[in-house]
Amino acid sequence: MASAVERVVRQASTIVLGKERQIRLALACLLARGHLLIEDLPGVGKTTLAQVLAKSLGLEFRRIQFTADLLPADIVGVSIYERDRGTFKFHPGPIFSQVILADEVNRATPKTQSALLEAMEEHQVTLEGETRALPRPFFVIATQNPSHQVGTFPLPESQLDRFLMRIHLGYPDPQAERGLLKGIERRELLAALTPCMEAAELETLQQRVRRVHASDALVDYLQAIIEFTRRSPLFHTGLSPRAGLALLAAARAWALMDERREVLPEDVQAVLPSVVGHRLQPVTDRPGVDGSAELSGRIIAEVPIP
Predict the structure, then answer these.
(1) 35, 125, 141, 301: which is deepest, by most CB within 10 A?
(2) What's the average model confidence in pLDDT over 134-138?
(3) How far apart are CA 252 and CA 75, in angstroms?
(4) How far are the Cα atoms of 5, 118, 139, 183 from residue 122, in angstroms, in the given order?
(5) Structure confidence by residue, pLDDT tens digits, 48-58
(6) CA–CA separation, 56 vs 196, rounded Å?
(7) For the residues 121-145, what does the mean pLDDT come to?
């Protein structure tokens, strides 16, 4: 199973050049049954990464372009009256897919953004009093432009917390960018991709993640991190219990990807910036600057390993 994960990483790395760590984090998020938020400037490969993951994993993929005039019904679907039958027939929206790309999610209004909440949390949608289950596996990848750009509606804290991880791609290094400039068009490469694993294999891996052992000492380390964020003057508020569960789930997935059956403190440290960066509000926030790596470094330095 681990070899299948490596095949996905290798294939994705041929399309999204120079971003192997971000690809691994995105895969860890999926294995932990979480949802992923990619925040960055337009044109750095956010949409391409989502498409590569969906095709490499052999999953059904739908893209929803979020705009200011998008309505909740455009996401979940709508019931239309059929005169011939004298009944209403439900027409499912694009949310009924295995991988959803919510592109530029912060360009939609808060009402439309909230339409994703039940789907992300419960893996189901309720419309007109009827609950409909979503496909399995179900994975939302949302992309978001920096909040200082024109025409954006910042996601509220409650919705940000629904995302297990937030990652940034950033500009490619010179070598990777040269490969992009001299290489084949990304769309052509995407069209030629073949799945590296089946949906059943992915679900098996997701089940194995839950069985990765976390020792009492490891849980002590997690609790120490959580307690530090709650007591530290660096943050307005500390990590919630849900954030602690998210950190443990991501660390388990990271350990599994390294073919280990037990979580190490290094696994927690590896995923810490991506899991807590969008959940912690620093007291001295610099607009337009992402300080998640810096703040996570402070946490790692201040909290000793038991």
Answers:
(1) 141
(2) 88
(3) 32
(4) 26, 5, 12, 42
(5) 888 898 888 88
(6) 5
(7) 84
Local structure of 213: helix, strand or coil? strand
Length, in residues, of the chain: 306
Domains and CATH numbers, the chain: 2-201 (3.40.50.300), 211-302 (1.10.8.80)
* Nearest residue to 13 via CA among 193, 250, 216: 193
**Average of per-residue pLDDT across 101-124:** 82
Q: How far apart are CA 138 and CA 120, in angstroms?
A: 8
pLDDT at 287: 47
Look at 1 and 268; give whichever has higher pLDDT: 268
**pTM for this predicted structure:** 0.88
Give mean pLDDT, residues 159-171: 87
Per residue in 7-55, pLDDT (tens digit) is 889 988 888 888 889 999 999 999 999 999 988 777 778 888 888 988 8
Residue in the structure block whose two tokens are 């007591």: 231
Cβ-based burial of 42 (10 A; exposed 0-12, middle 13-18, buried ≥19) = exposed
CA gap 38, 41 in Å, rounded: 10
Q: Which residues pair with 48 in a beta bridge?
A: none
**235 is written with which tokens?**
């943050």
Distance (Å, whole) CA 285 – CA 298: 15
Instruction: Compute the half-sphere exposure of residue 277: CA atoms within 13 Å on the CB side of its CA.
Output: 22
Count other Cβ atoms within 10 Å, centred on residue 193.
Answer: 16
The Cα-based distances of 261 to 202, 205, 208 in angstroms read 17, 12, 9
> CB under 8 Å to 297, separation ≥6 — which residues?
none
Structure tokens at 230: 């709650």
Average pLDDT of the chain to the nearest whole number: 85
- DSSP class of residue 83 equals T
Residue 82 corresponds to which tokens in the numbers above? 């059929």
Closest-CA residue to 138 (of 162, 155, 111): 162
DSSP state of 134: P
pLDDT > 70: percent of the chain: 94
